[in-house]
Amino acid sequence: MAKNCERTMRRNTNAVVEDLLFPGGDPDVTATSRRHEAIYEILTTMPDESYNSLKERADTFDWFIPDALSRGRIERWHARVYPKKKTIGRFKEVPYADILYLSPQLETAAWDIVLAVVAHELAHLAQNHQVICDADLYKKQEQEAWELVRRWGYAQQVKKLNAVHVRRDTVEKREIEESKAKIETAKARKQGKSGG
């Protein structure tokens, strides 16, 4: 297992924008959203190995970060054909683009949760994970992504997100059990009235 890195600034905003990694290319993160702020923090602090992997994949993915107030709209996804770097004549055509979706719900989530979710999705891209796969590979890729996020220095954020998931799962299980009990009670009452 690789050693966790300390989160320190490794590159500036201009580098992230020039490498075509920042959504929309707008470096003014203060004028955007919490999701953009998290993207900025993660991209400027992640270890070079992971960052370079994302840089190599810059032409194979795009961001979908819908405005929190938007109820719906049509988006046009650009063809993923353009120079990855400012090197003349270096174009790469890909048949599809992976879309990294960041929910508007993240705008109201705790900062640690936003960081954990954004880092997790970027980790999938950095590791070139398959989007369509069987359940076993999916589980393996999830574990790999979370491990990489921890190595990037976000172990506390992952721990907090896991606690949120456990609480949510507990509440959902309780609600399911309560619904089942209500259904059984209603069935018993109905049988009592008809057969009693």
Supply the key terms.
single chain; about 200 residues; mainly alpha; two-stranded parallel sheet; two-stranded antiparallel ribbon; 5 helices; 4 strands; about 5% strand; elongated
Within the largest sheet, what's the order of strands? 1-4
How many structural domains does the protein architecture include?
1
Biggest sheet architecture: 2 strands, parallel
Rg of Cα set = 22 Å
How many angstroms separate the termini? Answer: 66 Å
Strand percentage: 5-15%
Oligomer: single chain
pLDDT under 50 segments (min length 5)?
none
Tally of DSSP β-strands:
4
Structural class: mainly alpha
Shape: elongated
Secondary structure layout:
Layout: H1 13-18, H2 34-45, H3 48-56, E1 61-64, E2 81-83, E3 91-93, E4 98-101, H4 111-126, H5 135-195
Parallel strand pairs: 1-4
Antiparallel strand pairs: 2-3
Briefly say what this structure is.
The protein is mainly α.
Structure report:
- The chain is mostly helical and 196 residues long.
- It has one domain.
- 53% of the residues lie in helices and 7% in strands.
- It has five helices and four strands, in the order αααββββαα.
- The chain has helices at 13-18, 34-45, 48-56, 111-126, 135-195; strands at 61-64, 81-83, 91-93, 98-101.
- The strands form two sheets. Strands 1-4 form a two-stranded parallel sheet. A two-stranded antiparallel ribbon has the order 2-3.
- β2 and β3 (91-93) form a beta hairpin.
- α2 crosses α4, α3 packs across α4 and α4 (111-126) packs across α5 (135-195).
- The longest helix is centred in the last third of the chain and has 61 residues, at 135-195.
- It is elongated and about 75 Å long.
- The model has no long low-confidence stretch (mean pLDDT 83).
